[in-house]
Amino acid sequence: MPAPDRLTAQLDPATAALLTVECQRGVVGEDAALPELAHQARSSGALERIALLTAAAHRAGVQVLHAVAERRPDGRGAGRNARLFRAAERLPVRQLTGSPAVRVAEPIPVADEDLVLRRLHGLSPLAGTEADALLRNLGVRTLVITGVSANVAIPNAVFDAVNLGYTAVVPADAVAGVPAAYTRALLRHTLALVATVTTAAEVRARWES
Fold this sequence. Notes:
Blueprint: H1 4-10, E1 16-21, H2 25-28, H3 35-43, H4 46-60, E2 63-69, H5 83-88, E3 115-119, H6 131-137, E4 142-148, H7 153-163, E5 167-171, E6 175-176, H8 180-189, E7 196-198, H9 200-208
Parallel strand pairs: 1-2, 1-4, 2-3, 4-5, 4-6, 5-7
Helix pairs in contact: 4-9
């Protein structure tokens, strides 16, 4: 756990932003494409903690960004160079542009000032999107990363944030993957080496104070 003064400095509302990763109905909702992942996100309390963090960010004036993965109905521009992409084409729930599946999932609140980052390709909410330019224009130096999955998108987001020069903060109980033991191992043995790993309550406490 980082020293309180260091975490407080990292979470300064003037230079911090909250990122929710793939917290969309078709991924973590009641009728999601990946039921096991959706169940883990909900049953672990991660989704509820993300909602509370988002509400706290809104009250504190912290910029919120929602990263959404989607694809065109015709599949144009989508990659097929990974097993994951090819499997997604056969899932019963597809993340089609404009469909309910790509809306931010309840109970996460979305405010008018939030930015929604939509991508049609790749594994990362940062690489290949306009996220970096938007964050720099906003004066952001710290990115608080939440969401799913710890298997793919979350480590991608953390590594990309660090490579771009941002400080990454990861509330360990506001991310989810399958199995749960893998998420714990990833946080301890990988992400803790490059990011500040903390809890949702610690982040909220800084923003609510």
